[in-house]
Each structure stands twice: as C-alpha cells, then as structure tokens.
Fold this protein.
Amino acid sequence: MAVTAPAYASDAPAEGTVDAVVIGGGAAGLNGALILARSRRSVVVIDSGSPRNGPAEAVHGLLALDGTPPSEILRRGREQVRQYGGRVVFGKVASAEPAAASADGDLRFTVTLADGRSITARRILVATGVTDVLPEVPGLAEHWGHSVVHCPYCHGWEVRDEPIGILATGPASIGHALLFRQLTEDLTYFTHGTDLDQDSRARFAARGIRVIDTPVTEVVNDADGALAEVRLADGQVVARRVLAVAPQMQARTQGLEGLRLPVQDLPNMGRAFASGMAGTTEVPGVWVAGNVTDPVAQVGASAAAGALAGADINKTLAIADTDAALQKIAEGSPKAATR
C-alpha cells in the first residue's frame, strides 16, 4: 500500500490515546475535526491526499467560497484544525478495528497506517468519501472534472451554452438531462445501451433534446487536446464540447473492514455506508460523514455533516467522561480524574 509524497507537512501521530481519529481529510473530515478540536478534544486526521474533487479547478455553490480551488479550501481547513491543537497526518489506513475497552469501560479503537504506525482512539469518524466509476469509454476519463462533468450545480454555469452530451448510465441520467437542459439549448442524450421509455422520449422531444441510441465508442479530442466529438459504433461522429455523466459511486472502504460498518446499495448510484442522525452507525463509537454515506452531497453539505458528527462525538465523550468520574468517586477516589 504505497503512499505518495505529501503535498504539505505532515504532523506526527499523537502518543497515547486520543479522543478521536478522523479517517479522511476532505470537507467532512476536516470540519468534524475542527468541531472536536475547538471543544478541546485531542483529534488526529488521517489524510490520504486523494480528494474526490481534486481534478476540478474550483468549488462552486459554496457560499462565500464560490470559485475557490479545492486544494485551497483543504489547505485552509488543515490550518484551522491545527490552530486548535488538532493534528493532520498524511497516510493511508491499513486497518481500523475495535480494541479492548479501557479500565472505566469506555470504548477503544486501534487505527493502523500503511507504514506500520498506529493510533489508539476513543471514537472514530469515517469521512473517506467515494470513488467515481466512469463508463469504460476511451478518452472519457482524461477529461474528468473539466469537460466531462457530473453535477449541474458544481459545474453547470461554467459549461452553459456549450454543446452538451448526456452519456447515459441508467435511469438517473434522465433527470440529469432535464437539469442540464436548463443550461443549454444544444443537448444530446446518448442512451449508450440504457433503456429510455416512450414517455421520456416524448418529454425530451418537447424540450428539444436530441436522442441517439447508437452506442458511444470513443471520445475524440481536437488538435489542442480539448474534447471535440463523440464517435459512435456506426462510425458517425457528433460534435460535443462537454459530456455529462452520472457515474457509479463506491464508498472508499479499504482498510475499514474491521469496523464492520453496514453498507447500503443506493438505487442507480452505487454503494455507501449506512448512517443515522448526525452520522451515527450501528457500530458504537463510529460515525460516518460526507460522501462516504451521502454520495451526492456537495462540499457545503459534506462539511455540515462533518460538523454534526463532530458535535455528536463530543457529546458522547462528555457523557463518558462524566460516567468515569462518577465511577472513580464510587470506588473511593476523592477527586474525579480529568482527561
């Protein structure tokens, strides 16, 4: 499990037991860590340095930060977590699993990194995000995040009035087409082997959306390397400057198997971790937040989910601290221990 060189200075993992380990250094993970650090909790963020939105030039639809590069938002986030005593460690998680409870009965987890370092934590927040799985069409992946997009709210304004193609991946692409039609009058829907019922065809016709049933075999660039055409199985080419694709989204679960988190299949989207209010899971002491449980959440929603999870983790820790203090008194200690 090789780890690439960090793009920023990495902190050393904390010694002893920390209040929380956050697995994932994106918007959800960093905001969860920020809430915990500001509550004077010892928190360590494990960041693999592979954010989902890394290929994008800017984040959009985020109040006061619209147009900011993803890397800049994450840089500021790391700085702010560190400002309150949190640590950000560049690395990949090889395993995470429950450990023996402490003497006072509180939970413990062991998180081991790919390089062999390990951290003991009282609680875990999983915010590893998802991997977008694109159709296997030659030339498609190289334009991902630029002229191959997935979200009309994240990228729509930037591709307005361009000749846009919808490369269908399933029923969800039908709604995708209607949203992108708001952004351009030149929209072509490539069914690419997926079903399109007569009602949808009639609705597309009413909005002037062209439908092509011949499968797409290749994305073709112009002399400057920009997306220019879509080649069909019959040899025809259709000029397009932008393709919108609804990818399958798979939760990043590598190294987390030992936590035994329940996974749910999301219709027409992919797989994600199941969660309840504030990111709670069926596994005591483990929370999830962001795209790993809500694949369609934008940066703002993911950050908000991380904040809710962080606050809930702090609440459970406060209760556990109080329970431990009462236990010490019951055992005859005149003074409750502080953490």
